[in-house]
Design a protein that fits this description.
By secondary structure, this protein is an alpha/beta fold. The chain is about 45% helix and about 15% strand.
């Protein structure tokens, strides 16, 4: 297990790790009924890092209990401190090894009093970042710590999409080894520079490597804006992208059954163009269909959902629950767009459907059933389009709101006022350079990723300032508080002009659909 403790890994917020997102993914997938209606569910995350995803989940679901382990003491210390500063009592973190969970909860150490089993186990990115033995331990730990019917989220880098990046990993590793150590930032930079030189611009010079791996050039360009600590994790020696077939067999051997994806459009391969859709559909076996699907889209990253014991949904109950899903319009400025970029390529939605979505939701939340009635369709018929609209942040939904409004009076999710108070604490932390990487959307119970500087820029929206004045006001506050901003590469920016330039760039990126979305979500 090649886990380095000499550096902090970057902290990210992922909507796909939100309980509300996973609930809707399970519901749209239609293969397994993941029942969280009792409200008092439990969640365990392996490799929780800085704990941000559990922190947002804990704020969104105060009656539930959240637990996270990580091998890095500094990660756990930061997570524990931040949870305390935000006043959360339903989330705990511990320094622990996931291999101690392979036969169930450990009977020694800081996790010995934790629950016997969990409704949800999370493992983001771990499976392809560790060696084969640790990966097998991860799958066994997930299975042995899940309640029957519980859900396991497991994301990992995969082939064939990662094939084009393998030359970079190989060259960076070899350069590192020749320098007497493992992959380093220096070896990654050198490998990137050499490969860019070899590949050229693709017009005047094309090497055989560039012809056989055309996506490598794009991957190298993307690295220029990625934090070094993230790249070191992605390209370390033990990093092993996985084909879906062997991964799913290993999960099945551990007692885990594949039931869907947290990448919502991928639940509906029929949305592919007719040629690829027919090619994938020729596979009658579900496992083979997943293999063909990954080949059809050149998959590079999977967000798989597995169940420990599948509970087939009841058709009539499913129809009622789908019809009651509340929908809110998010980014109205996207109404002219019909093609949406996804992992499956550019996906399109019929213009009439998009116009009806905008019209029906323009005045406030409406249910999927009401939208379906306007379109003369059954709610189930709209699921592929709904998956795409949710994925693209064109609409939003909260499945827990539908449950709370139904026959489950015991279900307790955070009220909007509670989430507003939580966000106020996040703003205060951001003003001290200690934010949690985003804000929590009250009507969706989803984290909205935002850096500290972006949060501060949104908070002066109501003052009616010109863009330049807004930037200077926030810049003065940052300088006065002695905060340090970081650019996309993670490099510190401390001089006045550099801070102003970075803030101006961030504000420009927030304009348009970004600010519109935040406004509609009630985040300022």
């Amino acid at each position: 297990m090649d886990y380095r403790q000499d550096r902090l890994y970057p902290a990210f917020v992922h909507r796909e790790l939100a309980v509300s997102w996973l609930a809707i993914a399970s519901q749209l997938g239609g293969r397994h009924r993941w029942d969280l209606r009792q409200g008092r569910f439990t969640v365990l995350e392996f490799g929780c890092g800085h704990g941000l995803n559990l922190i947002f989940n804990a704020a969104a679901h105060p009656d539930a209990q959240f637990f996270g382990i990580d091998f890095h003491p500094s990660h756990v210390a930061r997570a524990t401190t931040q949870a305390r500063e935000l006043g959360l009592s339903n989330v705990q973190f511990a320094v622990a090894d996931l291999r101690d969970f392979t036969e169930g909860p450990p009977d020694r150490g800081p996790c010995r009093l934790w629950p016997e089993a969990y409704d949800l186990v999370l493992a983001h990115g771990i499976a392809s970042w560790v060696d084969a033995d640790t990966r097998q331990a991860l799958l066994e730990a997930a299975s042995h710590n899940l309640q029957p019917g519980g859900l396991f989220y497991c994301s990992y880098n995969t082939y064939p999409g990662w094939l084009s990046r393998s030359p970079l990993q190989m060259l960076a590793l070899e350069l590192g080894l020749l320098s007497g150590h493992n992959t380093s930032e220096a070896s990654l930079q050198q490998a990137t520079a050499w490969l860019q030189e070899l590949l050229g611009d693709g017009d005047t010079h094309t090497s055989p490597l560039g012809r056989f791996h055309p996506e490598l050039r794009t991957a190298l360009q993307a690295l220029t804006n990625a934090p070094g600590t993230y790249l070191l994790g992605e390209y370390q020696a033990t990093h092993q992208p996985l084909y879906v077939g062997p991964m799913h067999r290993a999960c099945a051997q551990a007692g885990l059954t594949h039931v869907g994806s947290a990448t919502l459009p991928e639940l509906f391969p029929q949305m592919l163009d007719p040629i690829r859709a027919a090619w994938v559909a020729q596979a009658r076996h579900p496992a083979l269909q997943e293999i063909l699907f990954d080949l059809a889209i050149s998959q590079s990253f999977r967000r798989d959902l597995f169940a420990r014991g599948v509970v087939p949904p009841n058709s009539s109950d499913t129809q009622v629950e789908l019809a009651s899903l509340p929908l809110i319009l998010r980014q109205d400025s996207l109404k002219a767009r019909q093609g949406f970029p996804t992992s499956m390529g550019t996906m399109a939605i019929n213009a009439a459907i998009l116009q009806t979505v905008d019209r029906v939701l323009a005045d406030g939340p409406r249910s999927l059933g009401e939208l379906a009635q306007e379109l003369g369709k059954a709610p189930r018929d709209l699921l592929p389009q709904l998956a795409l609209l949710l994925d693209q942040n064109r609409v939003g939904t909260d499945p827990f709101a539908a449950l709370a409004a139904g026959s489950q009076p015991g279900l307790k999710a955070a009220e909007p006022a509670e989430i507003t108070a939580f966000n106020q604490k996040l703003v205060e932390l951001a003003s001290r350079g200690k934010g949690a990487g985003g804000l929590l959307a009250p009507d969706l119970r989803l984290p909205i990723p935002l850096g500290d500087a972006q949060i501060l820029l949104t908070q002066v929206e109501g003052l009616g300032l010109k863009d330049a004045d807004r930037v200077q006001m926030v810049a003065m506050g940052i300088l006065r508080a002695g905060l340090t901003l970081h650019d996309q590469k993670g490099q510190a920016v401390r001089d006045k002009q550099g801070i102003s330039d970075l803030l101006a760039q961030l504000w420009q990126e927030l304009q348009g659909a970004g600010m519109e979305d935040l406004r509609r979500l009630g985040l300022f």
